Every structure is written in structure tokens, then in C-alpha cells.
Amino acid sequence: MPPEDEFRYKQCLLIRADLKISCGKRCAQIAHAAVMAFEHAGREERRAWLNEGQKKVVLKVPSLQALYELKVIAERQGISTALVQDAGLTEVPPGTITALGLGPARSEVLDRVTGGLPLL
To answer: Are 96 and 88 in contact, with CB atoms under 8 Å apart?
Structure first.
């Protein structure tokens, strides 16, 4: 696996910080976002990311509105996106948007979209 500074591809997984959900629920939503965004990515991006070791970065967004804004910005940059909508069986009402998966995509492109967000 390459050193941290040599990863050319990554995924960014965004979770809403305004939702009061357990750590386990957060983890499950982030996992959904990772799989869904991967499925929407292009073949070249998927292959490169898999070969490099599948770098992922989990970040917090302050609100649903911020999540939607980042989704639009990412799509304009050609980044695969996936919104996670919860079934509402445990901690949140049905249909609650909890997370957003971005990529895999080139690290520098994702950094332009998510560089100002704090880590989870």
C-alpha cells in the first residue's frame, strides 16, 4: 500500500453532525454511503481506488442543506455521489437523509469540494 501522500484516489464520506444518532448508527450510514458511491463511480476510478488500498476519509457536515450543497458541487466536478436515506427502523424518522458518499475520485478533485470540512 502506498504512503499516505501517494494516494491518488479516495472516497469522502460525509455524515450530518446535526443528527442525534448513536456511533453505531453513524458507522452504518457511512458504510452505506461508501458502497453506494462506489457503485456509481466510473470503472477507471473504481479500479484505481481498489488497487491503491481504498482510502476513505469521514467528514462532518453541519446540516442537511450543507449536504445537498456539497452534493451539487461534487456532481458539477464529475464526482460520483450517493445520498443515504434511512429506512427509519431505529433512531430517525423514515426518509431521513443521513450521509453522502463521494467518489472514489482523484484526491485533489475531492479536496476542492471537501477540504474545509472537519474530520468526524
So the answer is: yes
Judge residue 97's burial from the number of C-beta atoms within 10 Å of its C-beta, 0-12 exposed, 13-18 middle, 19 or more buried.
middle
pLDDT tens across 21-63, in order?
999 999 999 999 999 999 999 999 999 999 999 999 999 999 9
Return the number of other C-beta atoms located less than 10 Å from residue 72's C-beta: 10
* pTM of the entire predicted model: 0.94
Domains of the chain (ranges, CATH numbers): 7-114 (3.40.1490.10)
- The contacts found for 52-55 with CB under 8 angstroms, 24 or more apart, are 52/1, 52/2, 52/7, 52/8, 52/9, 53/1, 53/2, 53/7, 54/11, 54/104, 55/7, 55/9, 55/10, 55/11, 55/107
